[in-house]
Amino acid sequence: MSPIDSPLRWRYLHEVLTKPGPFSDEDWIPGPETISALESSKVLVIGAGGLGCEILKNLALSGFKDIHVIDMDTIDISNLNRQFLFRHSDIGKPKAEVAAAFVERRVKGVSITPFVGKIQDKDEDYYMQFKIIVCGLDSIEARRWINATLIGMVDPEDPESLKPLIDGGTEGFKGQARVILPTLSSCIECQLDMHAPRPAVPLCTIATIPRQPQHCIEWAHQIAWQEHRKDDAFDSDDMEHIGWVYNEAHERAKQFNIHGVTFQMTQGVVKNIIPAIASTNAVIAAATTSEALKIATSCNPYLENYMMYAGEEGVYTYTFEAEKKSDCPVCGNLARKMTVNPKMTLEEFIETIGERPEAQLKKPSLRTEEKTLYQRFPPQLEEQTRANLKRSIRELVDDGEEIAVSDPAYTIDFRYRLIFS
Amino acid sequence: MTEAFPSTLVGPSSKERKYDRQLRLWAASGQKALEESRVLLVNSDGPWGDQSTGVSGVVGVETLKNLVLPGVGGFTIVDPAVVTEPDLGVNFFLEEESLGKSRAEETCRLLRELNPDVEGSFQTQSILELIQQDPEFLPRYKLVLVSGPIKHSSLDALCSAARELNIPVLYTRSVGFYSTFSLQLPATFPIVETHPDPETTQDLRLLNPWPELTEATTRVENLEGLDDHQHGHVPYILLLLHYLDQWKESHGGNVPSNYKEKTEFREMVRSGARTSNPEGGEENYDEAVAAVLKSLNPFSLPSSLREIFEMEECKTPTPKSADFWIIASAVNEFYQQHKMLPLPGSLPDMKAQSADYISLQNIYKSKARRDVEEVTKYVRRVESQLGPRPIDIPDKDIEVFCKNAAHINVIHGRNIPQLNGDAPTLKSLGNNLSIPDSLVTVFIAFQILDGVVTDIQTRGQSGQSLDDEAAWSTQISRAIDEITSDGSQVLDDDCRERILEATQELRRTEGGELHNISSLTGGLVAQEALKVITRQYVPLNNTCVFDGVHSRSEMFKL
C-alpha cells in the first residue's frame, strides 16, 4: 500500500496551496510552509448534527489533520435523513463519538477528538488551543454563548488569542454562512436582529379564544399538562407525552370546531421543529469549511462576511458585509437603544425582552447603575426585588438611563439604553 | 361541514419518523414522487490524455448522497474509471481498499450504506455504449445527472436522447474553486405547487365580496352598539368590509383606488378604534390598519398565468395532454366566466372570538369548495369530449391546482447551453459580459475547459494533457471569436482580462476537484434535482455559477 500522505493523494488540494492564483494575496507565499500551516491548524467543530457531519467530512478532505468536535446529543431516528455518518444501529449513541470515529476510519491520517457535552462545560483555556472554530448549531443561545466567549478571550497584545468563528445555519431550503473575526468584524450579537424569533401566540388566545390547530396544541402543552400532570416533567422525546398532548389538543379542537390538529403538527409545535434536508446542509456546511481552508492557508480571500442562500426558487445567494455595531452589547462599547413604553409595568417589560429581536433573553435580571430592578437569583434577592415587578418603568428608571441585563444562559451583561416612547 | 375528526391517535410510522424533517417541506406527495424515481449519474466518460483519469466525479457522488438520504427510489452510476490515489484525497465515498477497483462499483457500495430503502446499481461501460446497445436503458430514469467536463459528442448524444424522452438533464462541472451547472428541462415543464411565501399570497377578495361574505358584514353593521369586548374582537376582515361600505357611500360607490385614497381610508379605519380602554387601543383595528395597503388591490390576472392560458396546450387540449393542461383549460374557462381565479380559501389568523373566526373561515372554505366543484365540472366535460383516457384526473389534483392557481408556473425548458452558435445564448452571454462583476466569465472559462477536454479526448494525441498551453490558447481564442461572431459584441480589454483571470483560476488544479466546492455544488444540484423530481418549488432556469473564491453565485438564462 502506498504511504498515507503520498503527495499524489492530495494532489488537487496541494495544487492550490503551492501556486498563486489571480485572486490570492500578492504577499502570500505558496508552498510547503502553507501545507504544514494547514496540517498543524487545530480546528474545533461545534455540533455533530446535520451541518456538523458534513463539516467534519469536509475538513478532513481539506487537509486538516487535528479536528475536535463537541456535541451533547444522541442520535435519533429523525436524524437519518441527512446526518449521513449515522446508521439505524447508531440510534441512541452520542453523535460526537460516532461521527468522529466514522470520519477517522474513512479518511486516513486525520485525528478527530470527540467531546460529548455542552460548550459551556469548557473554559477559555480549552478554546484557546484552537486556530479556527466552525459552528453548525441549531440554537441561537449556543451561538451567542460561543460568540461572547471568543470575544472575551481576545487580547490585543496577542494575535493568537483571536479565533476566527465561522458559523453556519439552515432552515428548510434556506441558510447562511458567516465569518466572524472577534472584536474586528460584525459578530453574532451585532446581527441578532436579522434572525428575529417567531412571534409567540398571546396567552389569552391560547387560554380562551383558540382559532388555529396550533393554539389547541399550545393549550394542551402549556395549560392542560400543568393542570393534570404537573408532577411529570414534560419530555418532548417521549412518545407517550406527545400522544397525551395530541389527544388533549384534539379534544379541545373538536370543542371549538377547529380542524387540522395532527400528530405531526403536535410534534412540530411542542419541539419547535425546523425542517431540515441533506442538500441545504451540504451547501452551508461546505460554505463554512471552504472559508476555513482559505483562512488557514490564504490560498484565496475569505468571505467578508456573510452569505445567505435561498433555494426555493432557483439558486439564490446574497453575499454582503454585515456591519459591526458600536452599540453591540457584546463587541461594542455603547449601550444599545431600546424603546419602551414608560407606562408598562416592569413585569410586562420583562415579558417583552424574550421576543424583542435586539434582546431575545428568556430569563432576564435587570439593574441600573445604582439599584437592582429585578433579580431572579438567589431567592432572597428575588423576594426583595419582586415588588418592583408591579411598578411602572417610569417609576423605576429615567428616560435615557442605561440598564444592565443578565441572563443565566450567558456569562456577560447586556447593556441597553431605555428610550421612552 | 363534511370534514370528519379522526377518532383515535395514529402515531407516525418509522418511515414517517425517519423522514419527518423533509416531509414538512414536500409532504407525502413529494416523498412519493421521490421514492418512485430512479436517477442516472454519468460520473465520467473516459480519461483525458495519458496522465489523467478524467473527471474525479466527487460532485456527482455528493449530489447522489443528498438524494439517497431523503429516499430517492434508486440510482445507477455509470463510470468507467478505476479508483486511483488522488480519488482518495477528494472523494468521501471511497476507502483505502477501493484503490484499483471500479469506481462505479465502490461509490455505489458506499452510497447504498446510507439508506437501506434505496436501490443502487452501477455500470462500468461508457454512457454512449450503454444507450446505443440498449434502447431500454435511458427510459428507466426520471432524471440524468452528468459530471463534466466531458467531450461534446458524448454530451450532445446523451442530451438529445434525453430530450426525446422528456427526461430532464443536469450537467455539472466542479473544478478548483469554481463550479457551474445547467438544467435541461422538457419544452414545457409545469409546476403546480410552487410554494410561494404565504405572506405574499393572501387572496381575501375584499373588493369583490361574494354574497355570503357581504352577509357576514351586515352582522357588524352597528359597531357603535357593541360592548368593548365585542368591539375589540370583530375580525379585521369584517372591519375592513364595514368601512369599505361607509367609504363607498361617500365616494359615489367607488372603492379607494390609489395610494392617497388608501391612506385616507386607512385613517378612517384607524379613527374607528376605541382608545379609552386600559390597553389604549385595539389589536383587531391594528391588524385592519396594517392590512389596508396590501389587501385592497383589485384582482388582476398574473401575467405568468395569462401566458399559460394563451398557450396552445391550454387552449386546445388533446387526448394525449398531461392532466395539468386539462385542468389549466378548465381554470381558464372559470376565469373567462368570472374574471377571477378560483378562491384558494385560506384565511390568515386574526384577533377574533373562536366561533366568529371559524364561521368566517367556513365562508372562505365553502366558496373555495364551490369554485373547485365548478372547475371539476369543466374538467369532466373536457375529459368526456376528449374521449377515453387511461384514468380520470383525481379530484385531489383539481383541488390542489385550484388552491395554487395564482402561482402555477410553466418553465420553457432550454438545451444545455454551449458555445455553438445558438443566438439567444450568445446574446445573453454578451449582455452579462457588460456587467463588471458578472460571473458569466466563469461560465465562459468552463466552456473553454470543455473545448480543451473535447480536443484531448477526440484527437487522442499522445502526451497531450490539461496543462497544454497551446490547447488552452486555441480554445480561448475560439471562445472569444464565438462570442463576438454575430458582430454585435465587441469585447473590451477589461472583458478579455476577466475571462483570462477566470480561466487562470480554473486551471489552478489542472482539472481536479476541491472537496468543499464539489460538496457545496452537490448540495445545490441535489436541491434542483429534488425540485424537478417532486415537481414542487421552482427549479433553476437554466444555469448557475458558483464562485468559491468570492463566495457568491449567479443565475443565468442561457
Automatic annotation (TrEMBL), chain A:
InterPro entries found in the cross-reference section: E2-binding, ThiF/MoeB/HesA, ThiF_NAD_FAD-bd, Ub_act_enz_dom_a_sf, Uba3_N, Ubiquitin-activating_enz
CDD domains per record: Uba3_RUB
Catalytic activity: ATP + [NEDD8 protein] + [E1 NEDD8-activating enzyme]-L-cysteine = AMP + diphosphate + [E1 NEDD8-activating enzyme]-S-[NEDD8 protein]-yl-L-cysteine
Keywords associated with the record: ATP-binding, Ligase, Nucleotide-binding, Ubl conjugation pathway
GO biological process: protein neddylation
Pathway: Protein modification; protein neddylation
GO MF term set: ATP binding; NEDD8 activating enzyme activity
Any Gene Ontology CC annotation: nucleus
Domain E2 binding, chain residue ranges per copy: 338-421
Main function: Catalytic subunit of the dimeric E1 enzyme, which activates NEDD8.
Protein name (Swiss-Prot/TrEMBL): NEDD8-activating enzyme E1 catalytic subunit
Species of the source: Aspergillus nanangensis
Automatic annotation (TrEMBL), chain B:
GO molecular function per UniProt: NEDD8 activating enzyme activity
Pathway assigned to this chain's UniProt record: Protein modification; protein neddylation
Keyword Methyltransferase: no
Keyword Electron transport among UniProt keywords: no
Biological process terms in GO annotation: protein neddylation
Record function comment: Regulatory subunit of the dimeric UBA3-ULA1 E1 enzyme.
Protein name: NEDD8-activating enzyme E1 regulatory subunit
Biological classification of the source: Eukaryota, Fungi, Dikarya, Ascomycota, Pezizomycotina
